[in-house]
Amino acid sequence: MKIINKAYKLRIYPSKEQAELIDKTIGSSRFVYNYFLNERIKKYKESKESIDFYSCSRILTQMKKDSNYIWLKECDKWALQTSLKDLDSAYSNFFRELKKGNSNQGFPKFKSKHKSRLSYRTTFTNNNIEIKDNKIKLPKLKWIRFRDNRDTSNILKIFNVTISKTKTNKYYVSVCVEEFTQEKETTGIMIGIDLGLKEYLTTSDNEI
User: Fold this and answer.
1) Among 7, 9, 93, 121, which one has the highest count of C-beta atoms within 10 angstroms of its own C-beta?
2) With 80 as the cut, is the pLDDT of residue 199 above it?
3) Contact 173, 10 (CB under 8 A)
4) How far apart are CA 140 and CA 138, in angstroms?
C-alpha cells in the first residue's frame, strides 16, 4: 500500500440558497483580502512597518461584531482566514524582494471582481468537510450533490477544498486529499517503444 496526495475536481450542483452563499463567500473573501491589503499598505507607508497575520485575524474577529460588517458572519470563517493567509504570503514575498534590494518591487495587487478567479479555499477542521454517496459536506453549505462515480473510500484525510464558479455559472470543488493506493507488482519485463512518422508508435514486440 502506498500513501499519496491527490486532488479531485468535481462539478457540484448547489441549491439556489447554497449558490447565493457561495457567491457571497467568494465576494467576502475578496473583500477581506483587499481590505487588509489596503491596511497593510497604509501602515507601511506611514511607518515602514507591517501588520502580521495574527493582528489581521484579531481585527477581522472584531469587524464581525460591527454592524457595518455583520454580513461577514454569514460566510465560512475558515475561508476568510485562508484569504488572510494568502495575503500574508503575498506580503511576505513583497518584503523578501525588498530585502534583496529590489526597490522596484510593487505591493501585492488588489483582487478585481471582474479579473480575479471566482473562488475561495477552505480548510478541513473538526470534520467540517466530508464526502459520502456522491455528496460533499462543506462549511456553512452543508451537503451538496456532485456528479462523479469515482470511489472515494480510499481517502484517508482531506486537507482543503477550493470552491469555484465559472463565467457560465457552473460550480466546482477541487478537493486536496491524502489517500492510499495499491502498488502494482512489476513483471520484470522490459519493452522498447519507437515513435515514428509513418506509424505513430511501434513496440519492440512489433506491435503497432
Assistant:
1) 121
2) no
3) yes
4) 6
